[in-house]
Automatic annotation (TrEMBL):
GO terms for biological process: lipoprotein metabolic process. Residues 1-241 form the Vitellogenin domain. One of its GO terms (cellular component) is Golgi apparatus. InterPro entries: Lipovitellin_superhlx_dom, MTTP, Vitellogenin_N. GO terms for molecular function: phospholipid transporter activity. Pfam families: Vitellogenin_N. The gene is Mttp. This is MTP protein. Transmembrane segments: none annotated. It comes from Formicarius rufipectus.
Length: 252
């Protein structure tokens, strides 16, 4: 079916979407995203109205885009176009931002970072949204999108939110950092994780300290292991037991 869509003209794909029974439309939308031909994407652009379509159909489109193994710049362009300046439900907005981060990351893996304007626009949309976010849940969504993108240039931003944010923001930023390959976990990243775990600058909730410790144990040094073990003497039993098991797993 995907192969058929790849050879179909825009008007044929559009007609198929319009005439299909409602229960079949999510399947056709997903197939059209997978086809990623100029015609199928153009048909989706005409067919999908984010102000009118059902939540189920829009989520199907955004999930299909996010999980596309080798997305095109045109697909990212379509997502950006559909999200730009629209009045969206919170669920669709969240899914759209996360999909955008995933698409940016995969296009950069294809070495298209500096070659396509859509990639720069997508990244700027996420960073601008993060800077302007006032509510904690919004900040968390943008940080998750940065985690999906996994771009090394965003590490300083993630570190800032990890060290200065409230609990949910700190743990989300650290989770995003844990998605980076080991070569990007620099001494600066480890210093911030140590400050969080050992509460050098301010107090952190248990979940934040555990997340920082796990980050250090993902890329362990003998001194970090020793210091984490020493710190367990002053912790409540549950937290200390969790960290001891993590250390044993790391050593194993």
């Amino acid at each position: 079916f995907i192969q058929m869509l790849r050879s179909a003209k825009k008007r044929d794909v559009l007609e198929l979407l319009r005439r299909a029974p409602e229960e079949m439309r999510p399947f056709i939308v997903e197939a059209a995203v997978a086809a990623q031909s100029v015609a199928s994407l153009a048909a989706l652009s005409d067919f999908l109205d984010f102000s009118k379509e059902t939540k189920n159909l829009l989520e199907k489109f955004l999930y299909a885009a996010a999980f596309s193994p080798r997305p095109s710049g045109e697909l990212l362009h379509l997502v950006l176009e559909k999200l730009d300046g629209k009045q969206l439900t919170p669920e669709i907005w969240e899914t759209g931002i996360l999909a955008m981060g995933s698409l940016v990351g995969k296009l950069c893996q294809q070495k298209l970072c500096g070659l396509q304007q859509e990639v720069e626009r997508g990244m700027e949309t996420i960073l601008r949204g993060l800077r302007g976010a006032e509510k904690e849940p919004e900040v968390v969504i943008y940080l998750l999108a940065l985690g999906n993108a996994v771009l090394p240039e965003t590490i300083p931003t993630l570190l800032g939110y990890a060290e200065e944010g409230p609990a949910a923001v700190t743990t989300t930023a650290i989770s995003a950092l844990r998605r980076f390959p080991a070569q990007h976990i620099s001494s600066k990243v480890k210093r911030v994780m140590r400050r969080i775990f050992h509460e050098k600058r301010k107090s952190y909730e248990k979940t934040c300290r555990l997340a920082a410790a796990e980050m250090l144990l993902d890329n362990p040094s003998p001194m970090d292991i020793i210091n984490i073990l020493l710190a367990t003497n002053e912790m409540e039993m549950e937290m200390a037991t969790f960290l001891l098991r993590k250390v044993q797993s790391s050593l194993h």
